[in-house]
Amino acid sequence: MSLTPKQKAMIRWKDAEQDDALKRNPLKNYFEGWYHVTLNTRNEAPTCGYVAGDVEAADGSTEEPRVVLSEVGNSATISY
């Protein structure tokens, strides 16, 4: 399915408005390593999970920062 001219114009507009720090680096190999993906939803509903804990807590403590996955987040798989 190809994009409509209106969709293409919206993509170009969003790209022009986006801060350079948020744009992808054309020299970076994004196929290697681990990346965090954030999904934005209406009312900021935690679709896949949420971050819990205290950022000031020591590693290994019961309050260290961690991701708590929802049922959807727990069942998600990545395939290449």
Task: Report on this structure.
With 80 residues, the protein is an alpha+beta fold. 22% of the residues lie in helices and 10% in strands. It contains two helices and two strands; from the N terminus they run H-E-E-H. Strands 1-2 form a two-stranded antiparallel sheet. The longest helix is centred in the N-terminal third of the chain and has 13 residues, at 5-17.
Concise structural overview:
22% of the residues lie in helices and 10% in strands. By secondary structure, it is an alpha+beta fold. Strands 1-2 form a two-stranded antiparallel ribbon.
Distance between the ends: 21 Å
Secondary-structure-based class equals alpha+beta
User: How do the SSEs run, as a string of H and E?
Assistant: HEEH
Average residue pLDDT: 81
Global shape: elongated
Lateral arrangement of strands in the main beta sheet: 1-2
Helicity, as a percent range: 10-25%
Strand content: 5-15%
Low-confidence stretches: none
Number of E strands: 2
Radius of gyration using CA atoms only: 18 Å
* Major sheet description: 2 strands, antiparallel
Number of helices in the DSSP assignment = 2
